[in-house]
Amino acid sequence: MTFPKIIVTGGLGYIGSHTCVELIHSGYEVIIADNLSNADISVLDGIHSITGIKPRFIQVDLSDSDSTLTFFNGFKDIAGIIHFAAFKAVGKSVQFPLKYYKNNVGSMINIVYNMLELGISNLIFSSSCTVYGQPDQLPVSESSPIQAAWSPYGNTKQICEEILNDVCSSQNRFNGIALRYFNPIGAHESALIGELPLGTPNNLMPFITQTAIGLRSELKVFGSDYNTPDGTAIRDYLHVVDLAKAHVTALERLLKKENTSNNEFYNLGTGKGSSVLEVIQSFEKTSGTSLNYVMAERRPGDVEAVYADTTKAKEILGWETELSLDDMTRSAWKWEQALKARS
Ligand code: UD1
């Protein structure tokens, strides 16, 4: 029996690796393309241990057009591509904008170009709620206007969505779905894969777990004077395993030709906003530890509150989250402890 082959770019990264696991569980043959710039090869063993299958892995820089061409020429019968490979540090993108444009936009162009050449027609693109900026209305639905990006990173997501949109308009056989993630956190329940930030984490959850395990002295809560019930900023945190499953759902929509437009986009979140303090409280409860944190200045570029209107994802995609904030913080802590035990 042959299984549909799916290429996962950035498949050794945080969301990519969890998606590979869900794809394999759903019967797909996964081929991972990753340049290892922000991922560790040991993640492949994690995927293997969870699923019993070691996916084929190819180290390739997809922002290089020759390497991408060579990579694609190695394959036949690819049913679809899930494209995660991208840089994601907002601050670094401000410092090194060209690096971000070259990598994130360049790889998107190379991938879509080769897909068109080879007649591969299904692409799931990893986008972000950052495209909405600080929305005028909450919860934020897909009809909310896209706002001017606050960072080169955010701009690369917008540009890649535009590229997808333009290609879909010009090629009606090409199908794309952009998934706009809110804030993925947590780890696989096995604690065999999870988030592996390089250096000091920028994001809240890894900073919390690294502080609790003793790698950081304290967590700074960025801003306690926001116009929110407890003064701290609000985000829509979702479990990375729920998010991974959404990719399988979206892919199947394309493979079964159930899409009603050849360019669709969905918000992926829980629909519920949680403040920074609520995340900390959940973490303290599920980990049984007391976190060392202090209130600090707002972080430049942060929005006050953003959470998803999940109606479209529920009604059209048929996906919704199943796991709670406590599941997220519990699994993130289990992962951090597993990492410590490994070292
Ligand atoms: C950030 C990016 C977003 C990107 C996402 C990818 C910004 C402005 N936004 O989302 O574009 O798609 O990461 O992962 O960087 N916080 C603290 N202390 C910390 C770290 C974070 O209080 O040490 C707070 C932040 O101020 C924010 C919340 O925690 O209110 C979540 O922050 P983070 O995890 O960095 O995610 P976003 O900023 O929402």
In short:
The chain has 343 residues and is α/β, with parallel strands linked by helices.
Task: Spell out the key features of this protein.
343 residues; alpha/beta; Rossmann fold; UDP-galactose 4-epimerase, domain 1; 7-stranded parallel β-sheet; two-stranded parallel ribbon; 11 helices; 41% helix; globular; binds uridine-diphosphate-N-acetylglucosamine
CATH domain class of the largest domain:
Alpha Beta
**Any idea of the CATH topology of the largest domain?**
Rossmann fold
Rg (CA only):
19 Å
Tell me roughly what share of residues is in helical segments: 40-55%
Q: Return the string of H and E elements.
A: EHEHEHEHHEHEEHEEEHEEHEHH
Number of strands: 13
Q: What is the count of structural domains? A: 2
Instruction: For the record, give the distance between the C-alpha atoms at the N and C termini, rounded to a whole number.
Output: 40 Å
Structure in words:
This protein has 343 residues and is of the alpha/beta class. The longest helix is centred in the first third of the chain and has 22 residues, at 97-118. It has helices at 14-25, 42-51, 65-73, 90-95, 97-118, 152-170, 204-213, 240-255, 276-287, 311-317, 325-342, and strands at residues 5-9, 29-34, 56-59, 78-83, 122-128, 175-181, 183-185, 219-222, 234-235, 237-239, 263-268, 274-275, 293-296. The chain starts with a strand and ends with a helix. Strand 2, helix 2 (42-51) and strand 3 form a beta-alpha-beta unit. Helices cover 41% and strands 17% of the residues. The strands form 4 sheets. The chain has a 7-stranded parallel β-sheet, with helices on both faces. The chain has a two-stranded parallel sheet with strand order 7-10. The radius of gyration is 19 Å and the shape is globular. The model has no long low-confidence stretch (mean pLDDT 96). Uridine-diphosphate-N-acetylglucosamine (UD1) is lined by residues 88, 90, 128, 130, 154, 183, 202-204, 207, 219-222, 233, 235, 276, 299, 301-302.
